[in-house]
Amino acid sequence: MSKKLTGSFPPQPDAASQLELAFDDNRHVSQLYGDFDQNLALIEQRLKVQITPRGNHVLLTGGATGVDQARRVLESLYDEIEKGRAIEIADVDAVIRMIETDDSQLSLPTLEGKGKVRMASIATRKSTIVARSPAQDSYIRAMERNDLTFGIGPAGTGKTYLAVAYAASLLERGDINRIVLSRPAVEAGERLGFLPGDMKEKVDPYLRPLYDALHDMMQAENVERGMTSGIIEVAPLAFMRGRTLANALVILDEAQNTTTMQMKMFLTRMGENSKMIVTGDPSQIDLPRGVKSGLVEALDLLSGVEGIHMARFTERDVVRHPLVARIVSAYARGEAAGRTD
Questions:
Q1: What was the pLDDT predicted at 176?
Q2: Quick one: 3 exposed, middle or buried, by C-beta within 10 A (0-12, 13-18, 19+)?
Q3: Contact partners, residue 305, CB within 8 Å, separation at least 6
Q4: What is the DSSP string of 273-290?
Q5: I want to staple 85 with a disulfide (CB 3.0 to 4.6 A). Which of 80, 108, 138, 331 is the partner?
Q6: Which residues 6+ apart lie within 8 Å of 8 measured at CB?
Q7: pLDDT band at 202, cuts 50/70/90?
Q8: How far apart are CA 206 and CA 252, in angstroms?
């Protein structure tokens, strides 16, 4: 654990500050610093502080707020390393995002006062996924607490990936008996009937992101066995009609491309001991002109309904290549300009 050696807190917010930390286990320090001190460099850049490593000691210099945030980042990362978790540069970025976010802006509790970050995570026997933004953290906690969760936002924010990871974890824990994955097949103006192959071959291209997430969280043979036995079911949205889905986690991806009737039909399939997760991006609607999105309407009608949580992501929550966030922002500005012209 780190020890604070110098510095007094809390100083005035804009006052210059200095703090020295000492970390007990030298074996963990090199991982905390990163290759060529890359983790420290990222913290310096993002929090506008100077970090001077001296063996297992770190001297933090800068504005009081930045120094305190840097302390919390380092202590949070060191705590994870002590638990045996390997730290990568993306994890450093995630903790910085969490600590930069004011406590009052978090929709669900994620921070322990001014102490360490407690990041929500999803674990299976194959992999553990840790939240990489405040929105992801809130989303993971919401899926655990609510029977119906909406994940709304742009590409690259992890809303679909985390939903599938959570489904895999519930299946392994025995909390559900099956996973049902669905997606409306309207992208690129194609219809299933005009695609070659049987039904599975027709649907597969649309559901590839869901398959990828499943294979990241489960052994390949378990995924194949589950799909063969029906424990993992993939179905076009139209095939949901007339069914009641019990003891299952049901995911509807690309929900912005559902009609009003399709969304109502899907949401009313929920049976006993089931959860539903609906993901989509209202800015990427591919429905014919004049057809209202069932997702957009559901977000309006179901707002405030008990047992339903709506997790909203923005371009700031994009966790792919940093350029993706800038691309999303550029398109959003272009669309906003078009609406005002």
A1: 95
A2: exposed
A3: none
A4: T-EEEEEE-TT---SPTT
A5: 80
A6: none
A7: low
A8: 12
Closest CA to 285 of 158, 190, 187: 187
Spatial separation of the C-alpha atoms in residues 329 and 316, rounded to whole Å: 9
Residue 101 confidence (pLDDT): 75
Which is nearest to 79 in space by CA: 64, 95, 66? 95
- pLDDT tens, position by position, 107-133: 544 444 445 677 788 988 888 888 888
Residue that is written with structure tokens 């350029």 in the block: 323
- Alpha helix segments (H runs only) across the chain: 26-33, 38-47, 64-82, 89-100, 134-145, 159-173, 199-217, 220-229, 260-267, 294-301, 322-340
Cβ-based neighbours of 72, under 8 Å, separated by 6 or more: 99, 114, 115, 116, 117
According to DSSP, residue 301 is labeled H
Contact yes or no for 250/275 (Cβ under 8 A): yes
Hey, which bits of 107-152 come out as E strands? 121-123, 128-130, 148-152
* Three-state DSSP class for residue 327: helix
Among 22-31, 48-57, 113-122, the range scoring the smallest mean pLDDT is: 113-122
Tell me how far apart the alpha carbons of residues 100 and 89 are, in angstroms, rounded to a whole number: 17
What dihedral angle (degrees, nearest 10) is formed by the CA atoms of 263, 264, 270, 275? 40
The strand pairing partners of 2, in sequence order, are: 23
Assessment of whether the complete model's pTM goes beyond 0.70: yes
Least confident of 56-65, 148-157, 205-214, 225-234: 205-214
**Ramachandran angles phi, psi of 170, nearest 5°:** -65, -40
Residue 204 half-sphere exposure toward CB, CA atoms < 13 A: 9
Spell out the residues 6+ positions from residue 32 whose beta carbon is closer than 8 angstroms to its own: 23, 39, 74, 77, 78, 81, 87
Six token digits for residue 262 = 């399709």
Q: Mind listing the pLDDT tens digit for each residue in 157-181?
A: 999 999 999 999 999 999 999 999 9
Measured between alpha carbons, how far is 108 from 100 in angstroms, rounded to an integer?
A: 16
